[in-house]
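Ticket #4471: structure export looks truncated?
Reporter: QA, pipeline team
Priority: medium

Steps to reproduce: submit the single chain below to the structure queue and open the exported record.
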Amino acid sequence: MTTLVIDVDGLSSLFKTLEAEGYTLVGPTVADQAIVYDTVHSPDDLPRGVTDVQEGGRYRLEERADDARFGYNIGPTSWKRYLFPPRTELLRARRRDGRLVFETSEENPPSYAFIGVRPCELAAIAIQDRVFMGSGRVDRTYASRRAGVFMVAVNCGQAGATCFCASMGTGPRATDGYDLVLTELIEAGGPRYVVETGSARGETVAKSLPGGLATEDDLAGVASAVARAESEVGRRLDTNGIRDLLVENPDHPRWDEVAERCLTCGNCTLACPTCFCSTTEDAVTLDGTAVRSRRWDSCFGLDFSGLHGHPVRSSAKSRYRQWMTHKLATWHDQFGTSGCVGCGRCITWCPVGIDITAEVAAIRETVRA
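Actual output as written to the record:
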């Protein structure tokens, strides 16, 4: 493993190298008063000197007193929109010479380089890899987009009030799943970036970067930044025995209490980097072509569990219970891992600030009593 130190010019060189190799760069940028993932071309497109402040049901941007490019936590969007798009065309059907002809939609996605992937998001991508490619059936759309993605991860130098990655073992330091991982060190002369390689592709790219080998002081700076982030993690989730805790208490009164607040809007599932529910829709164009598409769906939708015209889970209580129990408990049965990476998006982007860590703690406290 090679460990280098580069400055902002070196970061610019990284962008140019990846673009020259044919990658479409996607990274954090500011749009609509939020930090979102979109196409970027240089470090100038990153959220320079910008941070985010988050709490349950609250999100806002603030200026930093430095030129950090990665001095924020995470925004409302996740990388899944590039690997598992919100809408995908599956097939078309049209009449040709009196016959009905079916055409399967074949994607030709770009080769992506993801810039600024947080450790919890690396874990989320690994979970979706398991869902879409490692559970007995390979999803062609996901597999074609996932193949060849170049991962540039970023170790966290700060944590948000809704983060609980430390409880889930997914951060704030990246341990695997990346080609390169950066740690941003904020100094008087401007930020520097410690670059660690995690793959043969990463080694090749690192050799092209204008930088020197990291010193012991640089490595100490990495450790200090990660330790600071871990000390700032705003939430904790006790995962000990969590599967049985939730599965064995389907009638706990806490489900009624949270249902009184839940709007069943589905924000938590749409913001979540691991939720994968979808539905199919058929539409007919003006020229008579029938199009079948897959789009994101949510278990909070009343029709999601519909059978013979009636929903199986008709109450807010049953739908919230389904989501949280699947995410934290039965996901283990289905995929051998938790479905939660502790990113905190479901807390921040819930309009009424429902906190999944608080809900688990409330059930655990009364069960113990």
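Status: closed, not a bug. The export was complete when the record was re-opened. Leaving a note from the reviewer for reference: The longest strand covers residues 87-96.
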